[in-house]
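I'd like us to work through together how a protein chain folds, taking it slowly. We need material for that, and I hope you will provide a protein of your own picking. Go ahead whenever you are ready, and we will take it from there:
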Amino acid sequence: MSLSRAILLPVGFSVLALAGCSGSGGSSGAAHVRCGGTESFCLVSCDLGCGGAGCAVTEVAENQRIQFVFNQDLAPSSIDVSSFSLRTASGEAPLGDTIVDGPRVTFVPLVSVSGGVSSFGFRRNESYIVTLLGGSQRAIRSVAGDILPQSFTCTITASGGIIDADNARPRATLIAPTNIVAAPANSTIVLRFSELIDSTPFQAPISPSTPIHYVLRQTRIPTGTTERICNPDSEAIQLEGLPVVSIEQVNGRLDALAVSLLKQYPKEYSDARIAFAVHPLLGDMVKDSQPALRAAMGGVLLLLLIAVANATALAVARLKTRERDLAVRGALGASRGALVLDVLVESVLLSVYGAIAGSALAIAGVAAVRRIIPHTVPRWEHIAVGWDLLFFSTAFALAGLVLLGLLPVWKVARGTPWMALRGGTAQGGRAEGAASRLMLVGGQIALTVVLAFGAAQLVRSAVSLAKVDLGFDPHVMVVRVPADMRKFGNLQGVVGM
């Protein structure tokens, strides 16, 4: 089966991927083959070289179809996630569709495109356990009611890269503009390819050395006609640059397409409203989770501010002691450079050790969160502590400690040693620097109150949400029971069972 995709040019807005079609299919003459022994229903062959000892082929491509062929036509109702299973060790299934066609059941990996990058049903270098359930009432059955005698299982790994189903080059067909001679200057060029392609060349800057060329040629009027045609013998003018289109432009063209369809097919769309829209895939994935994520981010920022205020208050208290110590050393003849170097070394060591400890706690915390959050959260598998976060935390700690460490040096250098030595005494009933400490404590208390109020509102919302009427009884369990209607005759017979 071939896949085709349309690409809009002149833009870096094109549909990507490498070949998404399947490889081998099962033999059409596999049905009604006699099984070994006394079995009347069995697995005949598969793309993985199925045998009694498992799979002869254990390496598959990320976009490879996998087909299993039986000796009888399959009952489609018996093929579900429990009887026909592809799972990782952690229970994650590849993205794709399961198709039942006569004696064949085929898994077709899903091909998706995000940001010009293709992803396929099987995750790269991930191992999957293939299970065909047999020997029970939930096993795979034929339309005649025979049950697969025994289960089949093997393990495959998606380490075979990407395959091209037909081993042929992609073929392109020009869809728009229809008038290639009198096309307007702002035309949108639409190409339809015979299979999924890599759109990276369309998104990269165009030059004579790239695989994609935009060439202008002169036209000519053949003798005896009045229509202009392209003159392939004229001098070619290579265009360079980066094709760009905005989502608004694409949506505008799609709106025009919807209007034209309504005019062209008024009977088919008399009671319907056609609307097309293009949205960024990432935005569409996280749109339902954005409010909750933003609320969580607000709580994290408040908690960070509380921690910063607390650390600053501790650092200010430490600086008062350091200020007197530096004043004594300056009075004994220590140079300003020696004092600055001493403070810098101490601050750098503290920040490095603090960043390492904080990063270790962050990595452990993120690992714990990934185990407890539901897998319905978009891109949960990508939640991790990256190098950019580690660099930011280290730079933040280093900048804060260095600036706070240099503060007492600056105060000692600005005044005289005896003023710093006198700084710890009370003047007018209040010690020097008490105002700054009171401000930090007051800010910390204010932030804590805000965070506590937000947490209380969150708990209140959760309690109220638990009391919302769902519109159905959550204590009722619905069970799907496959039934052979030839044995029971009608629905009343199934209910009576």
